[in-house]
UniProtKB/TrEMBL annotation:
GO MF annotations, alphabetized: transferase activity
Gene3D superfamilies: 3.40.630.30
Keyword hit for Transferase: yes
Protein name per UniProt: GNAT family N-acetyltransferase
Keywords: Transferase
Length: 314
């Protein structure tokens, strides 16, 4: 059955329509709402798409471009085509045809498509994967993320359990806090020492985002006498609690404070979520596995999911 899908480029007057659709989507997160996407709008050329069947919005896709190449989205970890439960496989194929026609008109020759990891799917949402296959897209990158399946958790390793006991003996107290400046300063010290880099977000940026999304961006730390030993910034969605940043101080490592923080989050605070995500442990576009990093995550009971990137020639 043929159908006509039209594509319109997102602009600011569409903000409420975009956000309302994302909030009702079966595979989106708060990170794909415009108030999150647009915090760094000055760094990217936005060409996000809205797909209509007649006058009904049926899908959106966060997207940016640079010269003749588009990406969904260069400023986000992931962001493919977002849909609701009315999306069918045939409609998705039609969306791809309309998307390719749109990009051809814009003289865009290539799309880097960042698939949304399956843990964020509230309902089966792989219509886009089939459309990528039909359109002969090439898998160009596969990252490995480590995720705890919370309804049936794997027991922490012996070393992690010992660390939890050590942190308790050191009187580490785990609590939620909101001093983002303190956290990012600590995180940047570690990143600069280990990797000569800094956190993606500044303290002011993450603070503004947390104020815009107070139910989704939260921070937890392990303290001794109100001094931060270790902590994490959590990106919380209906199904997933994801560790966007993790930090620890030299003293925090000595007393194993991070182990107690993770024990609290995985075994107490987020027991009603489906997944606890530690993020990726791959480098160089997925071709190198950081064995030491992933081993630490697996000691908490995490196991692998993949995050795929495709190249679609237009």
């Amino acid at each position: 059955m043929s159908m006509t899908i039209t594509v319109q480029q997102y602009s600011t007057p569409h903000k409420s329509d975009w956000d309302n659709f994302v909030q009702s989507s079966k595979n989106a997160t708060f990170m794909l709402q415009r108030d999150y996407m647009d915090y760094h709008a000055d760094r990217f050329n936005d060409i996000s798409l809205m797909f209509y069947e007649d006058t009904t919005l049926i899908a959106v896709m966060p997207c940016s471009y640079n010269e003749n190449q588009a990406s969904s989205h260069a400023g986000l970890s992931f962001g493919g085509i977002l849909t609701n439960k009315k999306m069918t496989t045939a409609k998705m194929l039609a969306c791809f045809e309309s998307m390719k026609s749109f990009f051809k008109e814009k003289n865009i020759h290539k799309l880097i498509y960042k698939c949304i990891p399956s843990i964020y799917h509230a309902y089966p949402s792989d219509e886009d994967l089939y459309a990528l296959f039909i359109n002969e897209a090439n898998l160009i990158r596969r990252d490995v993320a480590t995720v705890v399946y919370l309804p049936e958790k794997i027991k922490f390793s012996k070393g992690k359990r010992w660390g939890i006991s050590k942190a308790k003996q050191a009187n580490v107290e785990v609590k939620q806090f909101n001093n983002f400046q303190l956290f990012i300063e600590c995180e940047n010290q570690i990143l600069e020492q280990k990797y000569n880099t800094k956190a993606t977000h500044s303290a002011d940026e993450i603070k503004r985002l947390a104020e815009s999304f107070p139910d989704n961006i939260k921070m937890f730390g392990g303290f001794i006498n109100n001094e931060l030993m270790a902590g994490t910034i959590i990106y919380e969605t209906p199904l997933v609690a994801h560790t966007q940043y993790i930090t620890t101080t030299p003293q925090g490592r000595d007393v194993m404070a991070l182990e107690l923080v993770m024990d609290y989050l995985i075994n107490h605070h987020y027991v009603n979520k489906k997944y606890f995500s530690f993020g990726i442990s791959t480098e160089n576009n997925g071709t190198i596995l950081n064995n030491g990093l992933i081993a630490q995550k697996e000691m908490y009971g995490g196991r692998a999911i993949t995050h795929d990137f495709y190249e679609l020639l237009i």
